Automatic annotation (TrEMBL):
It comes from Microbulbifer salipaludis. InterPro entries: EpmC (IPR007411). It comes from the Bacteria. This is Elongation factor P hydroxylase. Keywords: Elongation factor, Protein biosynthesis. GO terms for molecular function: translation elongation factor activity.
Length: 173
């Protein structure tokens, strides 16, 4: 409801966050005759919703015109090289997901999204996510991410989530 309140207006970004799907996916308007852009998240999991909202916030205008933002994705069972690439592109979305989780009062877990290969998030990845969260707080996130984070905090009666002291590396253990 918070995301849709921020971004679903036709005269705004015309984007809705919708749950209940087996796999997350981004559908730009016009695909399957839909009139709005859809950020689809897995089943009704809050973490999936916040993660997919983070991807949408990171994606630029051109990426938001492409199905699933035009990004590469290798499913569970990635090789070590594929996992390293996954971690490289996931730093910003996971840092934003952490900020959105704090805004809601939810626990955040760094996700390696590679359970079949037995690879959890590397210590470097955790450090990179923490450092990016710090940068978003100190230097600012983009306007969509900032708007959503603060709207979540307001809806959940939480303090401003864009305060660097709220994010500690040791919380990602």
């Amino acid at each position: 409801m918070v995301f849709n309140g921020c971004f679903s207006a036709p005269d705004g970004l015309n984007t809705r966050l919708i749950g209940g799907f087996q796999e997350p996916f981004y559908r730009p308007a016009g695909i399957d005759s839909q009139e709005t852009h859809q950020v689809e998240f897995t089943l009704d999991y809050a973490a999936s919703a916040l993660h997919e909202a983070a991807h949408w916030c990171v994606a630029g205008a051109e990426r938001r015109l492409q199905p699933d933002y035009g990004y590469w994705y290798a499913p569970d069972g990635r090789s070590a090289e594929q996992q390293a690439e996954f971690e490289r592109v996931e730093v910003k979305p996971q840092a934003l997901e952490w900020i959105f989780s704090v805004a809601c009062g939810l626990k955040f877990r760094v996700s390696a999204d590679n359970l079949d290969a037995g690879l959890g998030p590397s210590e470097r990845f955790k450090r990179d996510v923490w450092q990016q969260a710090q940068r978003f707080c100190v230097e600012g996130a983009n306007s969509r991410a900032t708007r959503f984070a603060r709207a979540l905090a307001s809806a959940f009666a939480r303090p401003d989530p864009l305060q660097a002291e709220r994010y500690r590396l040791e919380d990602l253990a």
